[in-house]
TrEMBL record:
The lineage of its organism: Bacteria, Bacillati, Actinomycetota, Actinomycetes, Micrococcales. This is Phenylalanine--tRNA ligase beta subunit. The keyword Disulfide bond does not apply. Residues 769-862 form the FDX-ACB domain. Residues 41-170 form the TRNA-binding domain. It is found in: Cytoplasm. It is an enzyme of class 6 (ligase). It comes from Dermabacter vaginalis.
Amino acid sequence: MPRIPLSWLGEHVELADGANAEAVAASLVSVGLEEEGIFGAQVTGPLVVGRVLNLVKETHKNGKTVNWCRVDVGPEHNDDKDNPKDPQPGDEVPSRGIICGAHNFVEGDLVVVSLPGTVLPGNFEIAARKTYGHLSDGMICSTEELGLGEDTEDGIIVLGKGIAEGIEAKPGDDAIALFGLDEEVVEINVTPDRGYCFSMRGVAREYSHATGRAFTDPALAIEVPEAAGEGFEVLLEDDAPIRGNVGATSYVAQCVRGVDTSAPSPRWMQQRLTLAGMRPISLIVDVGNYVMLDLGQPLHMFDAAKLTAPIVVRRAKEGEKLTTLDDKTRKLHVEDLVVADSTGGHGARAVALAGVMGGSETEVDENTADVVIEAAHFDPTTQARTARRHKLVSEAGKRGERGVDPELVEVAAYRAAQLLVEYGGGTLDSARTHARAGESAPVEIALPLDYAERVVGIDYTRDQVVGSLEKIGCTVTAGKDDGEGETLAVLPPTWRGDLRIPEDLVEEIARLEGYDAIPSRLPSAPGGRGLTRAQRSRRALANALAEAGATEVVSFPFTNEKTFSKLRLPEDSPLREAVRLLNPLADDEPLMRTAVLETLLPVAQRNLARGEDAVAVFELGLVFEKRGERVPVPSAASRPSDAELEEIATSLAKQDRHVALVAGGPITPTGPLTEARAWDWADAISFARRVAAAAGTELVLEQGESSAFHPGRTAILSTAEGERVGVAGELHPAVIKAFGLPKHAAAFELNLEAVIDSAPDVVPSEPISTFPIAKEDFAFVVDEGTPAEAVRAALIVGIGDVAEEVRLFDEYRGDQVAEGKKSLAFAVRLRPQDKTLKGTEIDEIRARAIKAVASAVGGELRA
């Protein structure tokens, strides 16, 4: 987030009278630049200049040598000479006694002293304290202690040297004002479309828009002379443009010779960089950073002696590597744009990732004499992709990927060269290279005069529309009135590359005229039809499962091949054909789930691992069926054709909504009079039936097999029409072990959409009979492989409409039935709607039921 020192901002725009950080932040907020933070004075209290009058070196028991100093801090702050707090030789002049551990100063030097009551950065309050046998009545300060950057003087600040070079002062002078430590700073949040606000130039312009104060463009104040020919040769050779955009449209190379790299940056520059949140490093680096912060144009400095002409801007080669300034060797991608020189051949050696970070081989160091300044306009998309590909975040990259003013390259390069000449003693080359390729000029936008009113809902006048657009730098030309209103021709300024369509211009009009002027009008909700049938069904079944004791959860729909193996999916299972993400949230879960159990089972495992004794969790979620290897990406140049849209639609994963449940462990704990009962396969089937009932349908159960379930305790679930919609039962012991679940843990999964679709559109109401119930029990001996559901269905057909309930209550295998046979016992409730059944009628119904079972499945009534 950019930090804006008010004094720096005031160089480019007239600040309102008495403006402080809060007022400036409020003005910037009004034009859409959100306040992120306000930083007041870094130092408060008595921070003054002092002169060292006397210095005595004392070595103590711990082996450390300190200086016991008498320091003149001015008449207002010196101790009374007749009553010093800690007398020593030299007390004939009023002063203060201070202990200091630094050794880079001598008697007579002017230093910076924080007196008791001073508060330094980090809320560090200074007080008089006894140390090394003396009362130290203050502290002699270093640059780091004052928040002016890292110590470069190997000790305290000495006026006239280093960061304090050129400062003239006398004892007692206010050092806060001397070093600008009373400066206020506003930190702002810049949206991605307004990269020009990553500079003092851009923020000053916005402050002018907010307050009407006069703005002076610093770029216009820099007069760039005509170049006396070409300097360092530059060739732009991008043979693989992305989306039609060449990698570099403009590249300036300006050489400054004989720069003294040991020369310090001027104090004012170091101070501004520090206030803006950047650490001063060296003259050459500081100049590049200062110009970037001021104008918004990123710069890079090459050691000219390490470069071989010509410079070539190109795409990286397959397998090419580059060691960047952070000393990391990076394998480059063929889409990366690089700056290369001709060491080893034409454009053979990459020396920088264009607009992102330079390379170590051409880095400026203490032996550098000649500097090549690079100022370029690179493709923002290329820069952003390169930065993310290599996980490189830099201040230059932040600006470049958001778009910078293409007309700034020569101005910024020349400004940096001026500063190097002024403070580094260099000589400016009169030759300068400016290579161009492609097109970076803004495109004219047609804007109907009433379009802003139609979009925002405010009746803007013509003067408001035109005035707002001209205020941000647009050139507005009156258009023709075709009978439906005037259309303006708007040419955005070069620094507003984000203005491309009419809606962008409307946004500018709205924010400059004031967001607070836009009325709040809540739209009237049209009369609706309520929830859809699917929505009602989903809510009903979720409530039904919750009422039965299960807890709803939501898991991320991402999984991996290991989960497939834990679920014992065969290698040729279609469930293993999962959609693979190119950029997954987690590297170990790159696949989209093909069944809800793939992510629900780990949720159950996690809950049990955290101390739960039992678990019963369910989830309603989407599963993803792969339908193509890769979704085609159409060109962004125009609307995709119908054929392209159809191809995309058929390539996207098919998404169905499923419901799944996992239950295991005791339902209730063991009590004094009761034994604990655990969730089992019967509960899983019961839960599945509850889901179907809530959706308004019934499921048909058939014993079957599924890889994740126990081979003898698994029910295949189908609709009445015979469509398989899910599975329920006890999980396979290997699956239970893999996920750390309780013994006999059970689960089900249903294709919820298929279940809902199988329900009738209208559920008929069942009249309630007022007549008594007749109860009958049947036990049939059938073949081992005969499903109980088939016997139950035959009973219902044989009994007819008077069957209110037919329920299996026992299953027997043993000595009393033949081998290969089993006995199935059913409880039947008979109740007609219009009468009480007589004994003879019950006998007839019983006979029909026995005959129906014998005919359908060959069952014999057990004696």
